[in-house]
Every structure is written in structure tokens, then in C-alpha cells.
């Protein structure tokens, strides 16, 4: 009897095992296991490998105003393949520090981000001064003048009572253009002084450059007075120099040739007294001892003078 029951129980278990296997096979066909594409696995591996070679750089997460200390919410870390020289690498290096100028989101930070001085002050060398001059479509090279160009400043003197002969001459050669209108060039560290926040602002800057009425030039400080006299004496033109010319940045700041260039520039203007619209001082004419003094009237014709005796 026991053997019979054991056989029945074994048969039931066998049938149950077959049913369970069949049911499992049906379920596996209805819900196939998702296979991970080989390309996805490769891409994930490459991304992980690249992440180890990239460097962290502190970047502004939003626009920040000047004279306000930075908080952790203002900052974020970005992984760059090549980090800019001198950039901050940890958020703690920037938290609590105060920028002296407004900066836009996406700007990477370095020590110069917290130095005082506006865009123009960060674009010139210690021995230069930023001077604005008036331009129009003609004086500004047909609206094609661009920050970073090098120009020769030409002066045209018209013929008038103070200048008997019209003339044209180069006042200063190889002067760097810092800005045209509202468009600024690069700072001394090679970054845009005022990068546009979006495409609309970039287009507005481009239109402002084309229609600009002022340009700011980097002038050697010892030649500043000379250029100021020239701007008041006649008409200025800016002649753009070729981009193929080499070492123009060293024309006024180089250690070898710049002293000679400075001396040549100071001597280049002939009849410099015309720029100030003043005649040179004349020494008084002394009369011989015992001779009677003759009163007369000085007659000026152009740049010539004559003494006429009084009747």
C-alpha cells in the first residue's frame, strides 16, 4: 500500500515539474531579457576613461554682479580636456571672494577674475594709455576696423592762415586698437574683455562696431601729448596695417627696437608748432647803444612777420 502511494506521489510531482517547466518557458518567451548593445558598453567605457583625463575647472553657474561675494550656488565644476592656464580647480577656492566687475554665466575663474580694473585697464600694458578718438566710416577704414588691428594714425593739416601749406604725415605708427564702439578686444591674458552672453548680444555688438563713432587706441604714455595735439590740429585717419606683419606688439614695448621707434616718433612731425596753432616765441631785437628807438608796428602775413615804422 505504501509503495502504491509513493508511486502516485512521485507521478504527481513529475507532472507538476513538467507543468512548472512549461509555464516558465512560456513566461520567458513573453518577457525577453533586454540585451545591452555592445556599442553602448564601449561608449560607456570610453567616457569613463576620458573622465579620468579631464581636469576640473571652476565656472560661474549664473551671472554675478560686481562687489558681491560669491557663494557655492554661483559656482559649478566643469570637466575640460585642457584646463585654461591659472584656472581655479576647486569651488572652495572661489567661495567668499568678491569680483570687482560683473561676469556672465559660463566664465571660468582664475586669480585675475578678482583683480580690480575695468576691461580697458586689463587690456593695456603699464607704459600705455587708452585714448579714445573720433571716427566715422572714412576714418574708421570703411567700417571694417576691428579690435586687435594695428593702425597708423595719419594727420592731415588744411591750408589756412596759421598753416600756409597743407600737409599730411604719420603721427604714430603701429598703434593697437583696443575697442571699436562697444566691441572690446582681448585682455592681457588672451580672454575676451566682454564676451557676449548670447547670439543676440553678439549681433548687437557687431552692429555697434560697424556704426561706431569712437575707437580706443593703446598709445605709449610719452607720446600721449603729441597725439592729443594732433587730434585738435587737423583731421585724423586710421590706416590698417597688414595682419602678416610680425611682432607689431613689440613695436612700442620691445626691449630692442622700441626705444629707437619712440625717438623717431618724437622727431617725425615737422613744423610741430603748427599742431598747437601757435607761432614760436621770438627773441626781442636789441638796438645799438645810443641809437634812437624807433617805434613800429609788427605786421603778420601767414607765417611771415615784418616791422613797419610808425609815421
From TrEMBL:
Signal peptide: none annotated. CDD domains: SAF_CpaB_FlgA_like (cd11614). It holds the Pfam family RcpC. InterPro entries: Pilus_assmbl_Flp-typ_CpaB, RcpC_dom, SAF. It comes from the Bacteria. Residues 55-115 form the SAF domain. This is Pilus assembly protein CpaB. It comes from Pseudomonas psychrophila. The lineage of its organism: Bacteria, Pseudomonadati, Pseudomonadota, Gammaproteobacteria, Pseudomonadales.
Amino acid at each position: 500500500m505504501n509503495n502504491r502511494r509513493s508511486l502516485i506521489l512521485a507521478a504527481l510531482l513529475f507532472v507538476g515539474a513538467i507543468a512548472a517547466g512549461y509555464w516558465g518557458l512560456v513566461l520567458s518567451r513573453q518577457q525577453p531579457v533586454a540585451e545591452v548593445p555592445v556599442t553602448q558598453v564601449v561608449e560607456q567605457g570610453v567616457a569613463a576613461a576620458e573622465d579620468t583625463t579631464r581636469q576640473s575647472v571652476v565656472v560661474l553657474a549664473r551671472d554675478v554682479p560686481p562687489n558681491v561675494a560669491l557663494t557655492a550656488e554661483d559656482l559649478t565644476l566643469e570637466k575640460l580636456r585642457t584646463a585654461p592656464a591659472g584656472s581655479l580647480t576647486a569651488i572652495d577656492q572661489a567661495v567668499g571672494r568678491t569680483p570687482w566687475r560683473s561676469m556672465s554665466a559660463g566664465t571660468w575663474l582664475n586669480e585675475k577674475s578678482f583683480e580690480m580694473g575695468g576691461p580697458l585697464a586689463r587690456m593695456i600694458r603699464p607704459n600705455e594709455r587708452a585714448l579714445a578718438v573720433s571716427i566715422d566710416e572714412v576714418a574708421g577704414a570703411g567700417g571694417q576696423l576691428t579690435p586687435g588691428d594695428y593702425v597708423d594714425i595719419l594727420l592731415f593739416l588744411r591750408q589756412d592762415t596759421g598753416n600756409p601749406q597743407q600737409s599730411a604725415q604719420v603721427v604714430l605708427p603701429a598703434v593697437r586698437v583696443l575697442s571699436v564702439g562697444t566691441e572690446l578686444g582681448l585682455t592681457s591674458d588672451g580672454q575676451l574683455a566682454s564676451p557676449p552672453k548670447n547670439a543676440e548680444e553678439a549681433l548687437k555688438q557687431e552692429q555697434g562696431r560697424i556704426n561706431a563713432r569712437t575707437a580706443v587706441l593703446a598709445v605709449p604714455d610719452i607720446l600721449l601729448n603729441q597725439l592729443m595735439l594732433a587730434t585738435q590740429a587737423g583731421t585724423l585717419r586710421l590706416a590698417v596695417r597688414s595682419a602678416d606683419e610680425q611682432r607689431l606688439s613689440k613695436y612700442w614695448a620691445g626691449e630692442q627696437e622700441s626705444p629707437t621707434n619712440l625717438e623717431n616718433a618724437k622727431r617725425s612731425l615737422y613744423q610741430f608748432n603748427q599742431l598747437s596753432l601757435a607761432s614760436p616765441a621770438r627773441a626781442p631785437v636789441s638796438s645799438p647803444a645810443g641809437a634812437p628807438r624807433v617805434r613800429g608796428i609788427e605786421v603778420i602775413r601767414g607765417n611771415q612777420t615784418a616791422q613797419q615804422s610808425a609815421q
